[in-house]
Amino acid sequence: MSPSESLDEKLIFSYGYKLVYVVDELTSICDLGRDRSYVVFSKRFVDRERLDLLVVDSYRSYAGYERSLACKQLMVIDDLALNTHYCDFLLDYSYGRNKLERYKVRVNNQCQVLLGQQFSIVDYDLYCEARKGARVEVDIVVFFGGVDLSDHTGRILDAITECELFDDQVIVVVVGVENRRMDHYRLKFRRSKNIEFVSSGRYFYSLLNSTRYLICSGGSVSFDKILFRVQSLAFTVAQNQLEQVTEIERLGLHINGGDIRVLSDKDLKVTLSSFLSDAPHFLLQSNLARNSVNPLGGRMVLERIFRRG
Predict the structure, then answer these.
(1) Numbered ranges of CATH 3.40.50.2000 in the chain
(2) Which residues contact 79 (CB under 8 A, 6 or more apart)?
(3) Which one of 61, 102, 139, 262 has the fewest beta carbons within 10 angstroms of its own beta carbon?
(4) Cα 17 from Cα 34, distance rounded (Å)
(5) CATH class label, 9-121+297-308
(6) What confidence category does residue 17 fall into, taking pLDDT thresholds of 50, 70 and 90?
(7) Closest to 113 in 3D by CA, of 90, 86, 80
(8) What SS3 state is found at 66?
(9) Distance (Å, whole) CA 255 – CA 236
(10) How far apart are CA 273 and CA 270, in angstroms?
(11) CATH topology for the 124-289 domain
């Protein structure tokens, strides 16, 4: 999509009488630092829609771009604390230490910083729907994100099929809609009768509500799995996940499988076998029972913003 094309209207929603628009990684269209047409387009869009709140969720957003938008209220979502920002609100609900100190020198004086798992953004409607739905018991869910360019899913499946411990487990593999390997997986693992492949994002919460264990990457699913109190084995697949994976391990809310990018196939198999051999993880269960993820975190964010506004 080019900057001149219309944006997805589904990203516009109302909160009471307030109109909110979420810019979610639209920087894939262009370079925010160089493409002035995107800045102009964004300003025209803000003016035309008379937005009460613009939310920018992009690692490439920065103070100069945010200042140019000149919208009524601007919230930036960040979890790295690397870029400087110019906004009314900055939201970081990721796990990590000393976040407030790190953001103090990276935001303008008028910015209100919202930190912590009480502000976690999860789909509350889908959460309620999953909790009310019938439970179909699943032993293990495997999920490595929407794209999984490095095919970590394939490596996990190779290790699983070589490990006898998994032979009697009902395994559901969630393949992101942007991952083009679904047919390849189904063909390659067609003889593994205990493995099923699904791609529906809406179905994911129902799976988390039904599964005993989760094997996953250390990304945004971290909040969902804790919300549903799922015992999980999490692998780091990108550098920006390292701090969060480590902190969640420190809190005893998941098992850290390490950086999958540097694990040999043999070590990966050992890690998976160890996770299943030690299950159930009673300390993990106890810690998850006291989880700090708030299913109404998104609503709390909006209430905080519009109460001030």
Answers:
(1) 124-289
(2) 92, 93, 94, 96, 240, 244
(3) 262
(4) 35
(5) alpha beta
(6) low
(7) 90
(8) helix
(9) 11
(10) 5
(11) Rossmann fold (3.40.50)
Specify the pLDDT at position 6: 34
The string of pLDDT tens digits covering residues 172-230 is 999 988 889 999 999 999 999 999 999 877 789 999 999 999 999 998 799 999 999 99
Token pair, residue 230, equals 């799922």
The C-alpha atoms of residue 112 and residue 88 are separated, in whole angstroms, by 6
Q: Is the pLDDT of residue 140 over 70?
A: yes
Contacts of 161 (CB under 8 A, 6+ apart): 189, 192, 195
Count of residues making up the chain: 309
3 state SS of 219: coil
Q: Compute the half-sphere exposure of residue 6: CA atoms within 13 Å on the CB side of its CA.
A: 6
Output the pLDDT for position 291: 83
Write out pLDDT tens, residues 50-67. 778 888 888 888 898 888
pLDDT at 3: 27
CB atoms within 10 A of CB 110: 9
Structure tokens at 122: 């999860």
- 199/147 Cα distance (integer angstroms): 11
Q: How many CB atoms lie within 10 A of CB 39?
A: 17
